[in-house]
Amino acid sequence: MNSNNKKTVYVIDGARTPFLKTKDKPGPFSASDLAFCAGRPLLARQPFEPSQLDEVILGCVMPGPNEANIARVVALRLGCGKKVPAWTVQRNCASGMQALDCAAQSISSGRSNLVLAGGTEAMSHAPVLLSHAMLNWLSQWRGAKCWKERLKVLSRLRPGHLKPVIALLKGLTDPIVELNMGHTAEILADKFQITREEMDAFALKSHQRLAEAQDNGHLSEIETIYDHDGKFYDQDDGLRRDSSLERLAKLKPIFDRGIGKVTAGNSSQVTDGAALLILASDEAVKKYNLPVLGKMVDCKWTGLDPSQMGLGPAHAVVPLLKANELTPDQVDHWEINEAFATQVLACLAAWKDEEYCKKELGLDGIFGEISSETLNVDGGGISLGHPIGASGARIVLHLLHVLKREKATRGVATLCIGGGQGGAVLIEALKD
User: Fold this and answer.
1) What residue ranges of the chain have pLDDT lower than 70?
2) Residue 145 CB neighbour total at 10 angstroms
3) Catalytic (active-site) positions
4) CB 69 within 8 A of CB 57
5) What is the structure's pLDDT at 167?
6) What pTM was computed for the model?
7) What is the dihedral of CA 21, 89, 100, 67, to 10 degrees?
8) How far from each other are the two terminal CA atoms of the chain, in whole angstroms?
9) Every domain of the chain and the residues it spans
């Protein structure tokens, strides 16, 4: 993005909703509601009008039936006006990051100067579908010409036709290798000999760090939101302050119930949330006298075996740093989305495994080691949740705030992607 013929891409501001853990029923906000709740205060504090945006790009995996091209729905609700184009992207868990990459490419090429981008997801609103058998029966019912034909069709209805198809479970299962994402995490645990105790310890640290971040006011990007009943939400509600190794050890495996290690306690939470950022060119920064959080330097995407999709960050970060002539020790802070504790631990292990680095990552030796003190310093998906369309944007936004708070320069945000992909973004803070 910063080569001689490309323009610098600045992040000027961002906001997100609290991440709300899915309970036993649909949450109080749809995906477009969440994006609107994050975008309204974000745009309200800017010196430009929403109609002066060049485009709006949102990532979302499961928009509701009333949210086709959800980016356009949100843009119009935010007052961007009919002339501002808007479009939606989908790259599974990295949809929010993909939206940022698309916005950055548009700005770096000179096509746009000011873009609202990010992601949103209301996983609690994932649809319940009808089976193919039921759809076929309904087709026959609609085609019946008289009451006799309808009685005949009615006689073919069976209880099995009414069995629902849970879209969320389908979406979290890879259709090529026919494995749930949790099963792919179990594969990585076995591959790198990651113990249950190590997973639970990582999960506990995620909760402890989020608790500390909340207590110290380190999540300033969160905007308070209100539902239709007047109830307000001002922080991520998946935090378990009473979590302990003893409590985590009591949880049973949920994917491989026999000898598995992956539990609900060391996995990311099913969550609703949205995160939006404003990206700008140098021209826009000067025109509107905009403050700058930092800049997006580069973004890389990669593919790998879907059955080991959790290693996506390990594969995406290597070409990202290589292209920018950096080594791991030159990165001040890291955000690796916590889809599963074992998935993050597997990436860290892969980077230290000489055989894996040579065979799978194309390196001459090990990639290197990342200090836990620079990784997910305020918690992650295990403690605050992973609304799949939003997480990629959240980790970039929060990493910018971490760099600013710690007076650091460089950060990498990365995540694994269902289907066997990885995405990584290199960001830099600007010195005063």
Assistant:
1) 1-5, 432
2) 7
3) 93, 386, 416
4) no
5) 73
6) 0.93
7) -50
8) 22
9) 9-126+268-426
